[in-house]
Amino acid sequence: RNLLDMDTFSKSDPVVVLFVQVSGSSEWKEFGRTEVIDNTLNPDFVRKFVLDYYFEEKQNLRFDVPPGSHSALFGTQDFLGQAFVALGEVIGSQRGRLERPLTGVPGKRCGTILLLAEELSNCRDIVTMQLCANKLDKKDFFGKSDPFLVFYRSNEDGTFTICHKTEVVKNTLNPVWQPFTIPVRALCNGDYDRTVKIDVYDWDRDGSHDFIGEFATSYRELSRAQSQFTVYEVLNPRKKCKKKKYVNSGTVTLLSFSVESEFTFVDYIRGGTQLNFTVAIDFTASNGLPSQPTSLHYASPYQLSAYALALKAVGEIIQDYDSDKLFPAYGFGAKVPPDGKISHQFPLNNNVENPSCAGIEGVLESYLQSLRTVQLYGPTNFAPVINQVAGTAAQVTDGSQYHVLLIITDGVISDMLQTKEAIVTASALPMSIIIVGVGPAEFEAMEELDGDEVRLSSRGRYAERDIVQFVPFRDYVDDSGNQVLSMARLAKDVLAEIPEQLLSYMKTRDIKPRRADPE
């Protein structure tokens, strides 16, 4: 909109060149160009850029606007402006629509660039169906058959790939299988007329299952069962060849078939779901005196501490999905002024009424200020700050708000039982917890909280969802000392589970994304 006019006899002939920053470096690579639009200062480009989107990465984009295709290597005299933006900022903005001023021509207003992002729909439907069979062939000598079904989708080259197995129904020739759910793309790769082959087997304990018969269908044919039962004849080709009077080996009836769309993380973000980011930092004495270079809190003039690095790595990505950019920030395990009482959830900005800091830089500023005013002490208690954020998350559970708590700590947790109880309670709320361990300590207890291997439980209650992600920061430190690369690696791992955790909350509560308002 309102581009600079660089042509003498007519208006400019603009084109937009997209550059993508290589992760963890300062290098930019050209990704693609729009078409050139002649003689206009308000071009509306048709060509789209298709990018892979990763929530857990900072995907920096640069849009350069030279005045035409001839400007492959354009000089500043021809330059119409440029804009820098992270892909997450576009997706996190209202309706996936972001307007940015163009800059780069000293002393001149360069106009604006309007960016629109939409997710390419790649057959996100999920099917639930139920089948039963009637008068299947008897295969077991001492009893009836133990039937199960195997579904195959056909490939382009005529081969078949297994895509689903039902459970075994024991000792019957008239089984009714449980309803099951399968993505449409797994069933037919999104091609509604592609063959779906279904084999019927009799289960044997030794794995040498007996083939009863087969039938073929397609997604389109299966979907007709939404209005009527569909009956398929089960045929055994070998029997058919041998026996003249062979009719079939039984029938399979499709009892029900329903389709619903699977929503994505981007659907919820576009529908207005906000990610609220809260930080909790370990101020226990085991970190060492902040003024000493050996301390994990020591910030030299040349590089950030491990705490500050972890905070920036995670916060700079999440902030793109939070419209007000105000982040509550707490410390735990310190004696705080004026009376020197130990606190496990003191606001870093010293404002109990409003612990929010403006942007990640505001959090860093308050963190460094707190290091100068509190006394590092102990113990290492997580439960108070988890309960604090859980209390906030419990106030709005309609899917419009989702909370991410980042805890950065150096060591062994002191209130393990209370923390497990707090996490189990929080697992029913719209929140996730990221724990980053800094320093050389052993973090075995944190692995238990992570719940990837064994679902976390407390006093007989199991966590409703896995909401904790733990990583030791030392695993991500770049050997060459490249802090940007270390931060990118850390963020990629700790944030990778957030979209799935958000989706699992929405799904268990049957919360659909809000429709983005029309233009």
TrEMBL record:
Give the CC-aspect GO terms. Answer: plasma membrane
Gene3D superfamilies from the UniProt entry = C2 domain
Q: Which GO terms describe its biological process?
A: cellular response to calcium ion
- Report domain C2 positions: 94-232
Location of the VWFA domain: 276-477
Keywords linked to the UniProt accession: Calcium, Metal-binding, Repeat
Which terms in the Gene Ontology molecular function aspect does this entry carry?
Answer: calcium-dependent phospholipid binding; metal ion binding
Name the coiled-coil region(s): none
Under Pfam families, the record lists:
C2, Copine
Q: Which family does it belong to?
A: Belongs to the copine family.
This chain belongs to the protein called CPNE9 protein
**Species annotation:** Climacteris rufus (rufous treecreeper)
Q: Which gene encodes it?
A: Cpne9
